[in-house]
């Protein structure tokens, strides 16, 4: 049973704030993803947990013990880096066994544990090969095996698949998730790839400029982004700008009302949450993009902007057609970028789309 708690962690480099007062807990056996753009501080958080960076303030608790004063080699953590960091002059078995030998384990136990972990990562029979004789994906599996064989309480992974091609990334992350669940390893995984985070994570921490924007399950982050930044960063999102006054705003002939402060207002709606053929807005199809499993349309709203709409692949649609359409779910953001409670009405239609902020 292992639990990781990051408590008000901050890091400054020569006066520049890289991480600002980050607090998050990772439950026993949970896989938590730190997600955000480059330079947002996610890798710095991971390195402070591992002991490679000293925090300016805050605590790192593993099973209730503050490990900030401990060097990396004395922390019950294992780190998988973006680069494989394998020793080229050692075989696969020697790379994996290195940490075990440093601990003084008997040769028979080292051999047994290396064999077991090679089975786990699907590399049984590769013991005598050298890193140069392996593919990039196989090298990363060796790096994971070298970490897992030490039986860390907390597994830390810093964008381990970013140097691999897309198909290999998909396969490896599925394998890593299966290994993590099989072993019940409490894991913190850093990535800038939203698909990777949505696929892997039990929960996601979205970071921006060193601070936490939102923490939630993949479903919560995707369906109810708490800030305009999260809405723009996760998945494809239509962001429609308008202006609120007196608690309401106009939007391509519709009226938005609710808990709306005067000033800039952003309405966010996902392409799959806009229904074609439903009365509400009217728009002209400007482009039809066939993506195989579905079609993506660019639709110019009458009196409004162009929005992306996802349509089933079998629906006969052509550029130049005029279509009715209506959003089925929206989120509104005030000038401060935070979600607001609101609703949208289309003329005399009784249907009102609720927006939960």
The unreliable regions are: none
Q: What's the Cα radius of gyration? A: 25 Å
Largest sheet: 8 strands, antiparallel
Number of strands: 22
> Would you list the SSEs in sequence order as H and E?
EEEHEEEHHHEHEHEEHHEEEEEEEEEEEE
Number of helices: 8
Strand order of the main beta sheet, please? 20-19-14-11-12-13-21-22
Calculate the terminal CA-CA distance, rounded to whole Å: 36 Å
Strand-pairing-aware structural class: alpha+beta
Measured as a percent range, the helix fraction is 10-25%
Beta-strand residue fraction: 35-45%
Global geometry = elongated
Q: On the 0-100 scale, what is the average pLDDT?
A: 91
Description:
The protein is an alpha+beta fold and 357 residues long. It is built from eight helices and 22 strands. The protein has helices at residues 42-50, 92-102, 107-120, 136-148, 166-183, 194-200, 218-223, 228-233, and strands at 4-13, 16-26, 31-35, 57-62, 65-66, 77-80, 154-158, 186-191, 203-208, 211-216, 238-245, 248-251, 254-258, 263-269, 274-290, 294-301, 306-312, 322-327, 331-333, 339-340, 342-345, 352-355. The chain has an eight-stranded antiparallel β-sheet. Strands 6-7-8-3-9-10 form a six-stranded mixed β-sheet, sandwiched between helices. Strands 2-1-4-5 form a four-stranded antiparallel β-sheet, with helices on one face. A hairpin with a 2-residue loop joins strand 9 and strand 10. Helix 2 crosses helix 3, helix 2 packs parallel to helix 4 (136-148) and helix 3 (107-120) packs across helix 4 (136-148). The model has no long low-confidence stretch (mean pLDDT 91).
